[in-house]
């Protein structure tokens, strides 16, 4: 979702994948732009939940966010 809104690869400034993985494991995430509508900002944040059980299922994302 973040990539769709920002149109960039997350962590594109990293030279090594391991550095990126370490930051993700430490809870770091790309910055969500302030221009992102709150509805989508909240969805992106939910999709980044550490516990996979807390992430919204794809079917709910489709039904709630697409016409």
Percentage of residues in DSSP E strands: under 5%
| Uncertain ranges | none
How many individual β-strands? 0
**Mind telling me the C-alpha Rg?**
13 Å
Distance between the termini: 16 Å
The biggest beta sheet is recorded as: none
Which H/E pattern describes the elements? HHHH
Bulk shape: globular
Number of helices: 4
State the helical fraction.
Answer: 40-55%
State mean pLDDT (0 to 100 scale).
89
Structural class: mainly alpha
Descriptive report:
The radius of gyration is 13 Å and the shape is globular. The chain has a domain at 36-67. It is 48% helix and 0% strand. The model has no long low-confidence stretch (mean pLDDT 89). It has 67 residues and is mostly helical. The chain is built from four helices and no strands.
Q: How would you summarize this macromolecular structure in one to three sentences?
A:
With 67 residues, the protein is mainly alpha-helical.
Main features:
single chain; 67 residues; mainly alpha
Write the layout of secondary structure elements.
Blueprint: H1 2-6, H2 17-25, H3 38-47, H4 58-65
């Amino acid at each position: 979702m973040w990539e769709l809104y920002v149109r960039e690869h997350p962590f594109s400034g990293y030279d090594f994948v391991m550095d990126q993985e370490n930051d993700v494991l430490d809870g770091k995430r790309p910055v969500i732009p302030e221009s992102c509508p709150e509805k989508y900002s909240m969805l992106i944040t939910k999709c980044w939940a550490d516990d996979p059980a807390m992430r919204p299922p794809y079917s709910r994302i489709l039904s709630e966010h697409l016409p």
